[in-house]
Amino acid sequence: MLIIMEPNATETDIDNAIKYIEQNGFSAHISKGAVQTVIGCVGGKTMDKRNIELLSGVREVVRITSPYKLASRTFQQDDTIISVKGAKFGGKYAGIIAGPCTIESEKQMDETAERLSEIGVTALRGGAFKPRTSPYSFQGLGEEGLKIISKVAKKYNMAVVSEVMDTSQIPLMLKYVDILQVGARNMQNFNLLKELGEINKPVLLKRGLSATIEELLMAAEYILSGGNRQVILCERGIRTYEHITRNTLDLSAIPVVKKLSHLPIIVDPSHATGLRDKIAPMSRAAIAAGCDGLEIEVHAHPQCAVCDGAQSLTPDDFSILLDDIKKIAEIVEKEVT
Ligand code: PEP
Ligand code: MN
Fold it and tell me: How far is CA 323 from CA 91, 94, 328, in A?
């Protein structure tokens, strides 16, 4: 942290600022210029920069290190690569997760998974606990749904990706699920994040509806600091004033995260756009931008889907998209898994 003093700051102001940071466990490195004094704060743990900004004679406080450590590229130079069954996320790999929004029945899951596995997908998604805006909407099949998805995934040798909404569901999820998804609405459920820090399975952490990239990385830090280093980030669109699409896909989050962090970042174009015909162009763009994978909603009969049918692709359309993705991935030197 750097404290930039006002040009007219008095010696007493400078002394008070130094005293303040020393009381907080930092040491001061003072640089006196012709016009201004700059105080570098070294060591120490954390300080609320607003408290320093309120001191007399202080013009500005600039943070020079990131508030997240373990998620930072400074902490780990090499990309984290997460492998589950055939799907790999990070480094030179782009992993594909596909499947319906929610688990409806064994027939529905089997029909979709059969087609997806023929196409070469190895990670099957499906929600058993659904975070619905309305309490009157379908809330998911719960454990019965988890049993269905794990049975079907086993049949086709696929990994299971499903959302955990609450700490109490973690033991159940560990029994049936390979990648535990934290939904956008739970990105800052800190109790959930802390407990997921203690498990030994990958966590797919989706960006909150109105979360900044820094907040997403801080949320990941909760999981990492608990000891679980297997975190996959997911950009799934953010709230903006635009309402033709369900959310606004922040494609720039991909290169931003890749520079700031070693963690893989995938894109969910389904929840980002909410519209089936926008999924292919956004998926192609995300792969071109260097993302580490995609999570796409696919349903054997989208018109009959209980949830999010309008943003679900048919297996045939998904297969065409996957061919395009593979071509683009080659240009950006990624292998689609
Ligand atoms: C989902 O993937 O099923 C989901 C609800 O997504 P999000 O949390 O991104 O809205
Ligand atoms: Mn959905």
Answer: 21, 14, 9
Q: Are residues 45 and 194 in the same domain?
A: no
Residues within 6 Å of ligand 1 by CB: 101, 127, 131, 163, 183-185, 206, 236, 268, 271
Q: Report which protein residue has its CA nearest ligand 1's atom 9.
A: 184
Ligand 1 atom nearest 181 alpha carbon = 2
pLDDT in tens, 172-195: 999 999 999 999 999 999 999 999
Give the pLDDT score at 66: 87
Provide mean pLDDT across the span 41-57.
92
184 and 279 housed in the same domain? yes
Containing structural domain, residue 218: 82-336
94 plus 166 within the same structural domain = yes
Q: What is the CATH number of the domain that holds 128?
A: 3.20.20.70
pTM for this prediction: 0.94
Asked if 50 and 193 sit in the same domain, the reply is: no
Q: Whose CA is nearest to atom 3 of ligand 1?
A: 101
For residue 10, report the distance from its CA to the centre of ligand 2, in Å: 59
Ligand nearest 179 Cα, by number?
Answer: 1
Residues with CB under 5 A from ligand 2 (ion): 101, 308
Pick the residue whose CA is nearest to atom 10 on ligand 1.
184
Residue 295 contacts by C-beta under 8 Å, 6 or more apart in sequence? Answer: 97, 98, 125, 161, 204, 234, 236, 266, 267, 268, 270
**Is the alpha carbon torsion for 212, 201, 333, 296 positive or negative?**
negative
d(Cα 184, Cα 220) in Å, to the nearest integer?
Answer: 13
**Is 101 in the same domain as 142?**
yes
DSSP for residue 212: -
